[in-house]
Design a protein that fits this description.
3-stranded antiparallel sheet; about 170 residues; 9 strands; mainly beta; binds S-adenosylmethionine; 6-stranded antiparallel β-barrel; Elongation Factor Tu (Ef-tu), domain 3
Length: about 170
């Protein structure tokens, strides 16, 4: 099953995905950003300081209690425009192919994206944040407080990225 109108780049490999899903998710809201096309999006969450909105479905409004006490949040979202069947990828801005699980590409079997964002405002079920990199309307899966004490690993390394020339 190919789901991408753009096809494969040299060095990329696709697999046949399982026939059935193992679990389901609930979208708990939508993310509002200034970006309508993938090419316009920042490549990662630190590339832009645009203020974006997270619109939580009113059904889940009570789940936001105390969120304003966090300075930063871990946001999980569903990259709904990404194909899901690539195991090797050759992103345009990188110099070689790499395994999907070695990349932060939105293209993956479960197209879940994660970003640590700065919380700058809360108005009812709408959060204003800095640090997102997704298309306007991207579905929201989850929000968690970011614990610097537990989540930050200052000496963490991604070897291939550190060695990258381009
Ligand atoms: C490299 S991913 C990183 C996502 C997240 N920060 C992470 O690390 O998991 C960000 C890119 O995904 C693409 N993208 C954004 N929203 C998307 C969506 N709804 N569906 C598919 N691709 C999307 C854009 O090209 C954007 O630059």
């Amino acid at each position: 099953m190919s789901t991408d109108p753009y096809g494969l780049r040299p060095g990329e490999a696709a697999i046949e995905l399982p026939e059935d899903f193992d679990a389901g998710v609930y979208f708990v809201g939508r993310i509002r950003t200034p970006w309508q096309r993938r090419e316009e999006c920042p490549k990662n969450a630190r590339e832009s300081d645009a203020v974006c909105s997270i619109e939580v479905d009113p059904r889940y409004a009570a789940a936001l209690k105390d969120i304003e006490t966090s300075s930063h949040l871990l946001v999980l979202y569903w990259m709904d425009k990404a194909r899901r069947d690539l195991v090797l990828q050759a992103p345009r801005h990188y110099d070689t192919q790499r395994g999907t699980f070695a990349l932060r590409s939105p293209v993956r079997p479960n197209p879940i994206a994660a970003s640590v964002v700065k919380l700058v405002g809360v108005a009812g079920p709408r959060l204003s944040v800095i640090g997102l990199d997704c298309l306007d309307g991207t579905p929201l899966i989850d929000i968690k407080p970011y614990f610097a004490s537990v989540d930050a690993v200052p000496d963490a390394v991604v070897g291939w990225h550190a060695e990258r020339k381009t």
